Amino acid sequence: MPRQPLHDHKTEQQHKKQGNMVKVMKEALAVCSDKSLSAGVTVWDIDSGDHLLHIPTCASPLHGLLCLANHSIVASQVQRLGSFAGGAIFIWPLNKGYGVGAPANSHGISETKPQSVLRNYCLEAIGPISSTRDGLYLAGGAPSGNAFIWEVSSGRMVKKWSAHQRSISCLAFSMDGSLLVSGSNEGEICVWDLISLLEVAADCGSVPSSFLSRLEHGSSITGLICTSGSSSSMLVSSSLDGTCKVWDLFSGELLSVRAFPQPVNAIIIDHKEQFLFSGCTDGRIFVSAVDSGVLDVNASVASEDQLMVLSKHKGSITALSFSLSGQFLISASEDCTACLWDVKTWSVTRRFNHKKGQITNIVTVPQSSLIAGGETSSRASHQPRVSLLDKYPQPVNNFKGTVAVLPSSLADNDIKTDFRSASMTSRQILDLETGKKKKQKVSSSSVPASPPPEK
């Protein structure tokens, strides 16, 4: 029999608390396909399964949909075969335009399309995207191997560089926003120090050195997850080579390897970071413990009696996620369905049918963020402003704003120690710029207005 995760009394009490929290904070599930722009984004009520909203004009590739700090939905758009046009990223602010201008449904959400849609047209096609948890920075990867970083509030492209020789298949920021991890379809993984990227942002053509680079997977990278462990941060990667690997995020040491009987197409870790869920191309989801264990370089394929196996899909798993409460695992498949798994019984409590094509992406959002004037929108003044994204890198001289170049005297170790989050990064840059302006002011006041007369 498959081994199942154990739930002690304490865990059961936490589930009860989570159940109560779900009643207070209702959640919505947003899904999309990559087949047609007309398919758009479909939004369902997780609890009832009711259709809440349809956002038109969206066809997003794998890893191309995210919720930006619970206030905007962001989606990269697929590029049609043979097209020579650039790419596109669409942004829908959730609190603007929903619930306004038409009768609301029973959930208080209007079926009208958003009044504010930011259509950002990029220099080249963008596949996977990722954002920092605070929503300050957005990263995108291209089939050319180029990577891009935008500052969301200003829309400024702060960095463009050649991250990989082949197409970028995955992107993920670390939990604190200090590192960006990229994976390619040739199995290469690079970890980039965000401060180093911003430090040389003035020269957008330069190639920064990666903080860590490993070529350890035998095929395309399909998933990247950064954990937030108190003792040490780990990186979990998955690949079409049928393995999942656990790394020390900072040292790059390979901690453990999990081998599966099928290529792994998607991964997710539960909120407690105890279990790894690996979705395979045959529709099965394998559950294994997230622990470093003992490294076995010759790891054999785990047998099904050693793992818990979830099997309800008839097509390849395309995406995995957890509800915001952690009460449900959500899986999506090429069979055009999404399943809601109860974490206590591991039974499917609801199945969502997506009639507009196979699902490529899933994301959960608070229902309050979909209602104009809701709880989330009442905090709009504290949310980052969203601007149109630059299509081209902007020279520093043309940028009307604060630009700070970190002093080269700072050692790499100092940088890695001092900057551990995107918000801290912004504060440090602002402090540096403020100090620079004060220094310039003092310097200019000490220079005579005109040269002294000649004697």
Structural notes for this entry:
The chain has a four-stranded antiparallel beta sheet with strand order 3-2-1-28, with no helix packed on it. The protein has a four-stranded antiparallel beta sheet with strand order 4-5-6-7, with no helix packed on it. A four-stranded antiparallel beta sheet has the order 8-9-10-11, with no helix packed on it. The chain folds into two domains: 28-382, YVTN repeat-like/Quinoprotein amine dehydrogenase (Methylamine Dehydrogenase, Chain H), CATH 2.130.10; 402-444. The chain has 455 residues and is mainly β. The radius of gyration is 23 Å and the shape is globular. The chain has helices at residues 9-24, 194-199, 412-418, 422-445; strands at residues 27-32, 41-45, 51-55, 65-68, 72-76, 88-93, 118-121, 129-131, 137-141, 146-151, 157-162, 168-173, 179-184, 188-193, 212-215, 221-226, 234-239, 243-248, 254-259, 264-269, 275-280, 284-289, 308-311, 317-322, 328-333, 337-342, 348-353, 361-366. It holds the Pfam family WD40. Keywords: Repeat, WD repeat. WD repeats lie at residues 161-194, 231-257, 310-351.
